[in-house]
């Protein structure tokens, strides 16, 4: 089989980088989809559409409140894999995911995913580890919300986002193409609170605020902020 050249975004992900080369090749050879702003990737209640990895652009994960209002739950950035729960248990998708701007992603359809595991059942362990990592991340997020200060929550979230956006780095600085509103939604915090903190951080030399972007100037300083706890 001809080897597929691996996208650097894929290799930047710790889980993908730990996979056997054969599995990396199978995933990297999946169909590439290109979507326009606002286009639905998969909808809540739809049967499993497959396994996805965002290669470029952003995607919004949305839910609906009891009052019928759409809620932005989180933002997916390049390097994020998603869809694992539905392809493993066969249950419908639990959220709507939309393209935010132009998006490029990999999609391994559910039948192809099932066929891959039938040929190589040993791969199941790697997907189970990924699902376990997602569960650990969920529990860690709940714990952080209870124990960490707002500075720590914001700094940790920004650093996590930066870890999958190294392709945007210029020198020692890292630029996140993420607005203050999107950061607020991702953390469940008001935009005013985010804006106040970022303005203070800009004055301290941690970041530089630009339209729809955030430039990280002092990574070590942000790491220090991420370790603060509630007073």
Which tags fit this structure?
about 230 residues, six-stranded antiparallel sheet, single chain, alpha+beta, three-stranded antiparallel sheet
Outline the biggest β-sheet: 6 strands, antiparallel
Shape: globular
Number of helices: 10
| pLDDT averaged over residues | 84
End-to-end CA span: 58 Å
Strand content of the residues, in percent? 15-25%
Note poorly predicted spans.
Answer: 166-170
Which percent bin holds the helix content?
40-55%
- Alpha-beta classification: alpha+beta
Total beta strands: 9
C-alpha Rg (nearest Å): 18 Å
Order of helices and strands: HHHEEEEEHEHHHEHHEEH
Write a structural description.
The chain has helices at residues 8-11, 14-17, 21-28, 84-89, 110-119, 124-147, 150-163, 180-187, 191-204, 219-226; strands at residues 31-35, 40-42, 51-64, 70-76, 81-82, 96-108, 174-176, 207-210, 213-216. It has 231 residues and is an alpha+beta fold. Mean pLDDT is 84; it is low at 166-170. Helix 8 (180-187) crosses helix 9. Strands 1, 2, 3, 4, 5 and 6 form a six-stranded antiparallel sheet that branches. A three-stranded antiparallel sheet has the order 7-9-8. 27% of the residues are buried. The chain has ten helices and nine strands.
SSE layout and pairings?
Layout (H helix, E strand, L loop, with lengths): L7 H4 L2 H4 L3 H8 L2 E5 L4 E3 L8 E14 L5 E7 L4 E2 L1 H6 L6 E13 L1 H10 L4 H24 L2 H14 L10 E3 L3 H8 L3 H14 L2 E4 L2 E4 L2 H8 L5
Antiparallel strand pairs: 1-6, 2-6, 3-4, 3-5, 3-6, 7-9, 8-9
Helix pairs in contact: 7-10, 8-9
């Amino acid at each position: 089989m001809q080897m597929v050249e691996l996208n650097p975004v894929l290799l930047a992900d710790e889980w993908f980088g730990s996979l056997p080369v054969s599995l990396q090749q199978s995933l990297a050879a999946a169909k590439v989809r290109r979507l326009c702003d606002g286009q639905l990737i998969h909808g809540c209640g739809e049967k499993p559409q497959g396994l996805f990895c965002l290669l470029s652009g952003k995607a919004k994960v949305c839910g609906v409140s009891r009052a019928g209002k759409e809620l932005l739950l989180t933002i997916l950035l390049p390097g994020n894999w998603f869809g694992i729960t539905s392809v493993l248990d066969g249950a419908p998708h639990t959220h709507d995911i939309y393209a935010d701007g132009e998006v490029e992603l990999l999609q391994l359809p559910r039948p192809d995913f099932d066929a891959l595991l039938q040929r190589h059942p040993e791969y199941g362990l790697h997907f189970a580890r990924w699902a376990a990592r997602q569960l650990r991340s969920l529990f860690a997020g709940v714990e952080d919300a209870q124990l960490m200060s707002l500075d720590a929550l914001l700094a940790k979230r920004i650093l996590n986002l930066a870890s999958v956006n190294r392709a945007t780095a210029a020198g020692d600085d890292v630029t996140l193409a993420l607005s203050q509103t999107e950061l607020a939604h991702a953390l469940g915090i008001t935009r005013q609170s985010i804006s106040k903190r970022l303005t203070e951080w800009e004055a301290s030399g941690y970041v530089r605020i630009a339209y729809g972007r955030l430039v990280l100037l002092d990574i070590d300083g942000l790491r220090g902020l991420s370790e603060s706890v509630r007073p």
